[in-house]
Specification:
By secondary structure, this protein is of the alpha/beta class. The chain has seven helices and ten strands.
C-alpha cells in the first residue's frame, strides 16, 4: 500500500528528541521502519516534513542553532532528494499579557511575557493531506499529537473513505506521571495508531555524521 508520511517537525522534536542525543534524526528511515513493522505491505513513497526556521534571537545557541537546523534540513534533502519535501511555516515572537499561574485563576492578575508561536504548520499539514486524498492517496500517516489536525482527518474520513489513515504519536515510551497523553480524537479517526517511539529506534535512525555534497559538506553539529 503506497504510503505518504506527514511529519509535524515541531511536535516530533519536543515529543521525542529534545534533550536527547538523537537530534540528528533520519526521519525517513525511522518512520519507514515503524510503518513496515506495523504492516510489511506499507510502502513509503513520499515524506512531507513540516517545520519553521529557528529564531536565532531567542534560541539557546543563537545563530549556531539557525545554522544547525539549516544543515539538518539540507542533509535530509541531499540524502532523499526525490523523496522528501520540506514545507516551512514561521515563528512569531510577540509580547502578551497572560494570567499568573495560581489556583483559583485570577484573570486580572497578569504578567507581560514573550509568546512564541509557530504559524501555518497545522494549516499546511491539513491542506496537504486533504489535497493528496483528493488525488487518490491510498494510505496517509500523520506524525503528530496535535488536536488542531482532527478536522482534517474528519474531512478525509468523510469525503474519501477509501483512504486509510495511520497516526504515529511522537512521544517516547515511558512510564510515570510525566508521560504525554496521546490524543484520543486522532486515535478515533485513524485506522491504526502507534502510541510511542522507542529510544532504540531513534538511536538506530541517525544520519551520517559527515555527508559529502557537490558544494560544501554537511557535518552533524557538535552540540547535537
Amino acid at each position: 500500500m503506497k504510503t505518504t508520511l506527514y511529519i509535524d517537525g515541531f511536535n516530533l522534536y519536543y515529543g521525542t528528541v529534545k534533550g536527547t542525543a538523537y537530534k540528528w534524526l533520519d526521519v525517513v528511515k525511522l518512520l519507514s521502519n515503524i510503518c513496515y513493522a506495523q504492516n510489511p505491505n506499507f510502502e513509503v513513497v513520499a515524506v512531507k516534513y513540516f517545520t519553521a526556521p529557528v529564531k536565532g534571537s531567542i534560541a539557546t545557541h543563537g545563530s549556531q542553532a539557525v545554522q544547525s537546523q539549516s544543515n539538518y534540513l539540507r542533509a535530509l534533502q541531499v540524502l532523499y532528494p526525490d523523496f522528501i519535501e520540506i514545507i516551512e511555516g514561521y515563528f512569531v515572537l510577540e509580547e502578551a499579557g497572560l494570567p499568573r499561574y495560581q489556583k483559583p485563576l485570577v484573570k486580572t492578575d497578569r504578567l507581560q511575557v514573550w509568546k512564541l508561536e509557530e504559524k501555518k504548520t497545522d494549516v499546511h499539514i491539513a491542506i496537504q493531506m486533504y489535497r493528496d486524498a483528493c488525488k487518490g492517496a491510498e494510505h496517509q500517516v500523520l506524525v503528530s499529537n496535535d488536536s488542531d489536525l482532527v478536522p482534517a482527518l474528519e474531512a478525509i474520513r468523510a469525503d474519501y473513505p477509501d483512504t486509510r489513515l495511520g497516526v504515529v504519536i511522537p512521544r517516547l515510551k515511558r512510564t510515570g506521571s510525566d508521560i504525554r497523553p496521546s490524543n484520543v480524537e486522532l486515535e478515533r479517526l485513524a485506522h491504526w495508531t502507534r502510541h510511542y517511539i522507542l529510544e532504540d529506534e531513534l538511536a538506530a535512525s541517525q544520519l551520517p555524521t559527515f555527508i559529502p555534497t557537490k558544494k560544501r559538506p554537511i557535518y552533524k553539529p557538535n552540540y547535537w
